[in-house]
Write a structure and sequence with these properties.
About 35% of the residues lie in helices and about 15% in strands. It is α/β, with parallel strands linked by helices. It has one domain: Zn peptidases (Aminopeptidase). Strands 1-2-4-3-5-8-6-7 form an eight-stranded mixed sheet, sandwiched between helices. The longest helix is centred in the first third of the chain and has 23 residues.
Protein backbone atom coordinates (compact mmCIF):
# COMPACT_ATOMS: atom_id res chain seq x y z
CA UNK A 1 0.00 0.00 0.00
CA UNK A 2 2.82 2.36 0.90
CA UNK A 3 4.58 1.49 -2.34
CA UNK A 4 1.41 2.20 -4.31
CA UNK A 5 0.94 5.56 -2.57
CA UNK A 6 4.56 6.49 -3.21
CA UNK A 7 4.10 5.66 -6.89
CA UNK A 8 0.95 7.81 -7.08
CA UNK A 9 2.72 10.73 -5.39
CA UNK A 10 5.62 10.40 -7.82
CA UNK A 11 3.27 10.42 -10.82
CA UNK A 12 1.44 13.44 -9.44
CA UNK A 13 4.61 15.45 -9.06
CA UNK A 14 5.90 14.29 -12.44
CA UNK A 15 2.72 15.51 -14.13
CA UNK A 16 2.84 18.76 -12.13
CA UNK A 17 6.45 19.41 -13.13
CA UNK A 18 5.69 18.63 -16.78
CA UNK A 19 2.73 21.03 -16.83
CA UNK A 20 4.69 23.75 -15.02
CA UNK A 21 7.53 23.30 -17.50
CA UNK A 22 5.13 23.62 -20.42
CA UNK A 23 3.63 26.81 -18.98
CA UNK A 24 7.08 28.19 -18.28
CA UNK A 25 8.19 27.72 -21.87
CA UNK A 26 7.72 31.28 -23.07
CA UNK A 27 10.29 31.07 -25.88
CA UNK A 28 7.68 30.89 -28.62
CA UNK A 29 9.24 27.76 -30.10
CA UNK A 30 6.06 25.80 -29.43
CA UNK A 31 3.65 28.25 -31.05
CA UNK A 32 3.56 26.55 -34.48
CA UNK A 33 3.11 23.16 -32.81
CA UNK A 34 0.19 24.46 -30.74
CA UNK A 35 -1.52 25.83 -33.85
CA UNK A 36 -3.44 23.01 -35.52
CA UNK A 37 -5.95 24.86 -37.68
CA UNK A 38 -8.78 22.95 -36.00
CA UNK A 39 -10.09 25.92 -34.03
CA UNK A 40 -9.77 28.12 -37.11
CA UNK A 41 -11.83 25.56 -39.04
CA UNK A 42 -14.57 25.75 -36.42
CA UNK A 43 -14.65 29.55 -36.59
CA UNK A 44 -14.73 29.46 -40.38
CA UNK A 45 -17.58 26.95 -40.39
CA UNK A 46 -19.69 29.12 -38.09
CA UNK A 47 -19.10 32.31 -40.05
CA UNK A 48 -19.91 30.73 -43.41
CA UNK A 49 -23.05 29.07 -42.06
CA UNK A 50 -24.37 32.56 -41.36
CA UNK A 51 -24.40 33.10 -45.12
CA UNK A 52 -23.08 36.19 -46.92
CA UNK A 53 -22.11 38.81 -44.31
CA UNK A 54 -22.92 41.94 -46.27
CA UNK A 55 -22.01 45.17 -44.47
CA UNK A 56 -24.90 46.70 -42.57
CA UNK A 57 -26.98 43.51 -42.49
CA UNK A 58 -28.04 41.31 -39.61
CA UNK A 59 -25.66 38.54 -40.68
CA UNK A 60 -22.72 40.93 -40.45
CA UNK A 61 -23.95 41.92 -36.99
CA UNK A 62 -24.29 38.27 -35.97
CA UNK A 63 -20.71 37.66 -37.10
CA UNK A 64 -19.52 40.63 -35.04
CA UNK A 65 -21.27 39.28 -31.93
CA UNK A 66 -19.68 35.86 -32.42
CA UNK A 67 -16.18 37.33 -32.83
CA UNK A 68 -16.56 39.55 -29.76
CA UNK A 69 -17.75 36.58 -27.69
CA UNK A 70 -14.74 34.51 -28.79
CA UNK A 71 -12.25 37.21 -27.84
CA UNK A 72 -13.91 37.73 -24.45
CA UNK A 73 -13.78 33.98 -23.75
CA UNK A 74 -10.03 34.11 -24.38
CA UNK A 75 -9.62 36.82 -21.76
CA UNK A 76 -9.04 39.83 -24.01
CA UNK A 77 -10.40 43.30 -23.29
CA UNK A 78 -12.99 43.83 -26.02
CA UNK A 79 -14.21 47.15 -27.39
CA UNK A 80 -16.93 47.64 -30.00
CA UNK A 81 -16.23 50.61 -32.28
CA UNK A 82 -19.39 51.55 -34.19
CA UNK A 83 -19.13 53.72 -37.30
CA UNK A 84 -21.24 55.00 -40.21
CA UNK A 85 -20.50 53.65 -43.68
CA UNK A 86 -22.01 53.32 -47.14
CA UNK A 87 -23.02 50.22 -49.05
CA UNK A 88 -22.06 49.57 -52.67
CA UNK A 89 -25.02 51.69 -53.83
CA UNK A 90 -24.05 54.69 -51.71
CA UNK A 91 -26.75 54.18 -49.08
CA UNK A 92 -25.82 54.93 -45.47
CA UNK A 93 -25.36 51.89 -43.26
CA UNK A 94 -23.75 51.19 -39.89
CA UNK A 95 -21.11 48.65 -39.01
CA UNK A 96 -18.63 47.89 -36.22
CA UNK A 97 -15.00 47.09 -35.57
CA UNK A 98 -14.38 44.44 -32.92
CA UNK A 99 -11.19 45.36 -31.03
CA UNK A 100 -9.53 42.88 -28.67
CA UNK A 101 -6.55 44.14 -26.67
CA UNK A 102 -3.95 42.65 -24.41
CA UNK A 103 -2.01 45.50 -22.82
CA UNK A 104 1.72 44.97 -22.46
CA UNK A 105 4.37 46.26 -20.09
CA UNK A 106 5.63 48.85 -22.54
CA UNK A 107 3.78 51.06 -24.97
CA UNK A 108 4.74 49.33 -28.21
CA UNK A 109 1.75 47.87 -30.06
CA UNK A 110 1.27 45.43 -32.93
CA UNK A 111 -2.08 45.37 -34.76
CA UNK A 112 -3.49 42.26 -36.42
CA UNK A 113 -6.53 42.87 -38.61
CA UNK A 114 -8.98 40.93 -40.78
CA UNK A 115 -12.34 42.01 -42.18
CA UNK A 116 -15.36 39.88 -41.36
CA UNK A 117 -17.88 41.17 -43.90
CA UNK A 118 -18.35 39.64 -47.36
CA UNK A 119 -20.20 40.41 -50.56
CA UNK A 120 -23.45 38.98 -51.92
CA UNK A 121 -22.47 38.90 -55.58
CA UNK A 122 -19.87 40.48 -57.85
CA UNK A 123 -21.13 40.59 -61.46
CA UNK A 124 -17.58 40.97 -62.78
CA UNK A 125 -16.31 37.69 -61.32
CA UNK A 126 -19.47 35.70 -60.63
CA UNK A 127 -19.74 32.10 -61.89
CA UNK A 128 -21.99 31.07 -64.76
CA UNK A 129 -23.56 28.44 -62.53
CA UNK A 130 -25.42 30.28 -59.76
CA UNK A 131 -26.59 27.09 -58.05
CA UNK A 132 -23.86 27.53 -55.43
CA UNK A 133 -23.74 30.56 -53.17
CA UNK A 134 -20.55 32.34 -52.19
CA UNK A 135 -20.45 32.68 -48.40
CA UNK A 136 -17.19 34.59 -48.07
CA UNK A 137 -15.31 31.56 -46.80
CA UNK A 138 -11.99 32.62 -48.29
CA UNK A 139 -12.72 36.34 -48.42
CA UNK A 140 -12.56 36.71 -45.54
CA UNK A 141 -13.82 34.20 -43.00
CA UNK A 142 -10.43 32.54 -43.47
CA UNK A 143 -8.57 35.65 -42.26
CA UNK A 144 -10.82 36.04 -39.23
CA UNK A 145 -10.50 32.34 -38.41
CA UNK A 146 -6.69 32.51 -38.50
CA UNK A 147 -6.74 35.65 -36.35
CA UNK A 148 -8.95 33.97 -33.74
CA UNK A 149 -6.80 30.85 -33.45
CA UNK A 150 -3.62 32.93 -33.20
CA UNK A 151 -5.27 35.06 -30.50
CA UNK A 152 -6.24 31.95 -28.54
CA UNK A 153 -2.74 30.46 -28.65
CA UNK A 154 -1.04 33.76 -27.77
CA UNK A 155 -3.40 34.28 -24.81
CA UNK A 156 -1.33 31.63 -23.00
CA UNK A 157 1.95 33.52 -23.42
CA UNK A 158 3.46 36.43 -21.58
CA UNK A 159 4.30 39.29 -23.94
CA UNK A 160 5.98 42.61 -23.26
CA UNK A 161 4.25 44.75 -25.87
CA UNK A 162 0.56 45.36 -26.45
CA UNK A 163 -1.28 43.17 -28.97
CA UNK A 164 -4.42 44.50 -30.66
CA UNK A 165 -6.62 42.21 -32.74
CA UNK A 166 -9.21 43.98 -34.90
CA UNK A 167 -12.06 42.45 -36.89
CA UNK A 168 -12.93 45.18 -39.39
CA UNK A 169 -16.45 45.76 -40.63
CA UNK A 170 -17.57 47.05 -44.05
CA UNK A 171 -14.31 46.40 -45.89
CA UNK A 172 -15.93 45.29 -49.13
CA UNK A 173 -17.80 48.56 -49.69
CA UNK A 174 -14.78 50.82 -49.21
CA UNK A 175 -12.46 49.83 -46.31
CA UNK A 176 -14.78 51.71 -43.97
CA UNK A 177 -13.81 49.92 -40.76
CA UNK A 178 -10.05 50.15 -41.15
CA UNK A 179 -10.28 53.74 -42.34
CA UNK A 180 -12.38 54.71 -39.34
CA UNK A 181 -9.99 53.05 -36.91
CA UNK A 182 -6.87 54.57 -38.50
CA UNK A 183 -8.39 58.05 -38.76
CA UNK A 184 -9.16 58.00 -35.04
CA UNK A 185 -5.70 56.92 -33.90
CA UNK A 186 -3.89 59.46 -31.74
CA UNK A 187 -0.42 60.60 -32.83
CA UNK A 188 1.11 58.74 -29.91
CA UNK A 189 -0.74 55.55 -30.92
CA UNK A 190 0.63 55.83 -34.44
CA UNK A 191 4.20 56.29 -33.23
CA UNK A 192 3.91 53.34 -30.85
CA UNK A 193 2.51 50.93 -33.45
CA UNK A 194 5.40 48.73 -34.57
CA UNK A 195 3.49 47.05 -37.43
CA UNK A 196 0.07 46.26 -38.84
CA UNK A 197 -0.52 42.66 -39.96
CA UNK A 198 -3.37 42.23 -42.44
CA UNK A 199 -5.04 38.87 -43.17
CA UNK A 200 -7.23 38.78 -46.26
CA UNK A 201 -8.14 35.65 -48.27
CA UNK A 202 -5.78 33.13 -46.70
CA UNK A 203 -7.75 29.91 -47.22
CA UNK A 204 -7.65 29.45 -50.99
CA UNK A 205 -5.33 30.39 -53.85
CA UNK A 206 -2.25 28.71 -55.27
CA UNK A 207 0.67 30.18 -53.29
CA UNK A 208 1.40 31.77 -49.92
CA UNK A 209 2.37 35.48 -50.04
CA UNK A 210 3.25 38.35 -47.73
CA UNK A 211 3.76 41.98 -48.82
CA UNK A 212 4.42 45.43 -47.50
CA UNK A 213 2.43 48.42 -48.67
CA UNK A 214 3.59 50.48 -51.65
CA UNK A 215 5.15 53.94 -51.98
CA UNK A 216 8.03 53.56 -49.55
CA UNK A 217 6.16 51.66 -46.84
CA UNK A 218 8.83 50.06 -44.60
CA UNK A 219 9.39 46.46 -45.64
CA UNK A 220 11.12 45.02 -42.57
CA UNK A 221 7.96 43.38 -41.16
CA UNK A 222 7.41 41.63 -44.51
CA UNK A 223 11.05 40.52 -44.59
CA UNK A 224 10.86 39.18 -41.04
CA UNK A 225 7.76 37.18 -41.99
CA UNK A 226 9.58 35.77 -45.04
CA UNK A 227 12.47 34.61 -42.86
CA UNK A 228 10.14 33.05 -40.31
CA UNK A 229 8.34 31.20 -43.11
CA UNK A 230 11.65 30.03 -44.51
CA UNK A 231 12.73 28.82 -41.07
CA UNK A 232 9.55 26.72 -40.93
CA UNK A 233 10.22 25.25 -44.35
CA UNK A 234 7.23 26.92 -46.02
CA UNK A 235 7.16 28.29 -49.56
CA UNK A 236 6.25 31.80 -48.44
CA UNK A 237 6.64 34.27 -51.30
CA UNK A 238 6.26 37.95 -52.05
CA UNK A 239 5.16 39.83 -55.16
CA UNK A 240 7.59 40.11 -58.10
CA UNK A 241 8.98 43.29 -59.62
CA UNK A 242 6.58 44.44 -62.32
CA UNK A 243 5.40 47.46 -64.28
CA UNK A 244 2.72 47.99 -61.64
CA UNK A 245 4.43 47.29 -58.32
CA UNK A 246 7.89 47.23 -56.85
CA UNK A 247 9.16 43.90 -55.52
CA UNK A 248 7.47 42.92 -52.26
CA UNK A 249 4.64 45.47 -52.45
CA UNK A 250 0.98 45.30 -53.33
CA UNK A 251 -2.06 47.42 -54.14
CA UNK A 252 -4.31 49.42 -51.84
CA UNK A 253 -7.26 47.05 -52.08
CA UNK A 254 -7.38 45.81 -48.49
CA UNK A 255 -7.36 46.99 -44.89
CA UNK A 256 -3.61 47.62 -44.78
CA UNK A 257 -4.03 50.81 -46.83
CA UNK A 258 -5.12 53.28 -44.09
CA UNK A 259 -2.22 52.14 -41.91
CA UNK A 260 0.45 52.43 -44.58
CA UNK A 261 -0.84 55.98 -45.24
CA UNK A 262 0.12 56.67 -41.61
CA UNK A 263 3.61 55.30 -42.24
CA UNK A 264 3.02 52.16 -40.16
CA UNK A 265 4.97 49.13 -41.47
CA UNK A 266 2.65 46.55 -43.06
CA UNK A 267 2.82 42.77 -43.43
CA UNK A 268 -0.13 41.71 -45.59
CA UNK A 269 -0.79 37.96 -45.97
CA UNK A 270 -2.86 36.27 -48.66
CA UNK A 271 -2.89 33.21 -50.95
CA UNK A 272 -2.66 34.21 -54.60
CA UNK A 273 -0.78 33.49 -57.84
CA UNK A 274 1.32 36.38 -59.11
CA UNK A 275 2.93 34.15 -61.73
CA UNK A 276 -0.25 34.43 -63.79
CA UNK A 277 -0.54 38.21 -63.67
CA UNK A 278 2.39 40.19 -62.19
CA UNK A 279 0.29 43.37 -62.05
CA UNK A 280 -2.03 42.04 -59.36
CA UNK A 281 -2.13 38.29 -59.61
CA UNK A 282 -4.99 35.86 -59.98
CA UNK A 283 -6.10 33.62 -57.17
CA UNK A 284 -5.96 30.30 -58.97
CA UNK A 285 -4.53 28.88 -62.17
CA UNK A 286 -7.55 26.58 -62.41
CA UNK A 287 -10.45 28.83 -61.35
CA UNK A 288 -8.88 32.26 -61.95
CA UNK A 289 -10.85 33.84 -59.08
CA UNK A 290 -12.44 32.25 -56.03
CA UNK A 291 -13.14 35.41 -54.03
CA UNK A 292 -16.29 37.27 -55.07
CA UNK A 293 -17.61 34.20 -56.90
CA UNK A 294 -19.87 31.25 -56.14
CA UNK A 295 -16.70 29.23 -55.50
CA UNK A 296 -16.05 31.20 -52.31
CA UNK A 297 -17.42 28.56 -49.95
CA UNK A 298 -15.99 25.97 -47.58
CA UNK A 299 -15.53 23.42 -50.38
CA UNK A 300 -12.67 25.50 -51.78
CA UNK A 301 -10.93 26.15 -48.47
CA UNK A 302 -7.70 24.36 -47.58
CA UNK A 303 -7.21 23.79 -43.86
CA UNK A 304 -3.53 23.16 -44.55
CA UNK A 305 -3.21 26.68 -45.96
CA UNK A 306 -5.02 28.12 -42.95
CA UNK A 307 -2.70 26.29 -40.56
CA UNK A 308 0.41 27.40 -42.45
CA UNK A 309 -0.75 31.01 -42.34
CA UNK A 310 -1.51 30.80 -38.63
CA UNK A 311 1.93 29.25 -37.96
CA UNK A 312 3.77 32.17 -39.54
CA UNK A 313 1.44 34.89 -38.26
CA UNK A 314 1.47 33.54 -34.71
CA UNK A 315 5.26 33.43 -34.63
CA UNK A 316 5.54 36.89 -36.20
CA UNK A 317 3.15 38.48 -33.71
CA UNK A 318 4.93 36.78 -30.82
CA UNK A 319 8.29 38.16 -31.93
CA UNK A 320 6.91 41.67 -32.40
CA UNK A 321 5.35 41.60 -28.95
CA UNK A 322 8.47 40.30 -27.17
CA UNK A 323 11.04 42.73 -28.56
CA UNK A 324 11.23 46.48 -28.04
CA UNK A 325 11.57 48.47 -31.23
CA UNK A 326 12.73 52.09 -31.05
CA UNK A 327 10.11 54.77 -31.34
CA UNK A 328 10.03 56.06 -34.86
CA UNK A 329 8.72 58.97 -36.85
CA UNK A 330 6.04 58.30 -39.44
CA UNK A 331 7.37 56.02 -42.14
CA UNK A 332 10.76 55.60 -40.49
CA UNK A 333 11.82 52.58 -38.47
CA UNK A 334 15.07 50.77 -37.81
CA UNK A 335 15.54 47.53 -39.72
CA UNK A 336 13.77 44.74 -37.91
CA UNK A 337 16.59 42.21 -38.05
CA UNK A 338 18.66 44.43 -35.77
CA UNK A 339 16.08 44.28 -33.01
CA UNK A 340 14.14 41.07 -33.54
CA UNK A 341 15.54 37.57 -33.12
CA UNK A 342 14.03 34.69 -35.10
CA UNK A 343 13.59 31.51 -33.07
CA UNK A 344 14.88 28.26 -34.50
CA UNK A 345 12.34 25.48 -34.84
CA UNK A 346 13.11 22.36 -32.82
CA UNK A 347 12.68 20.10 -35.84
CA UNK A 348 14.95 22.09 -38.17
CA UNK A 349 18.69 22.32 -38.28
CA UNK A 350 20.50 25.50 -37.29
Amino acid sequence: MKKKCATMIYLFFAIFIFQASALADQSGLQIPKQITGERAAEHLQFLTELGPRVAGTMTESDAATYIADQFEAMGYEVTIQDFPAEDSNGNQIFSSNIIATRTGKFDQNVIIGAHYDSILKDDEYWCDDDLEVGTGAGDNASGVAVMLEVAEVLSNYKTKGTITFIAFGAEESGLWGSRYYAENMEEEDIENTAAMINLDSVGAGDYFYVYSGRDGNPGWARDLALKIGQRMGYDLRTSPQSDCFDWGTTGDWSDHRPFRYLGIPVAYFEWMNWDIEPCGGEESGIYEWIMHTCFDNVNFISLEKIEMTADVVGSLVFQLSKNKLPKFEKGKVAKGNKYISIPKRNDLSN
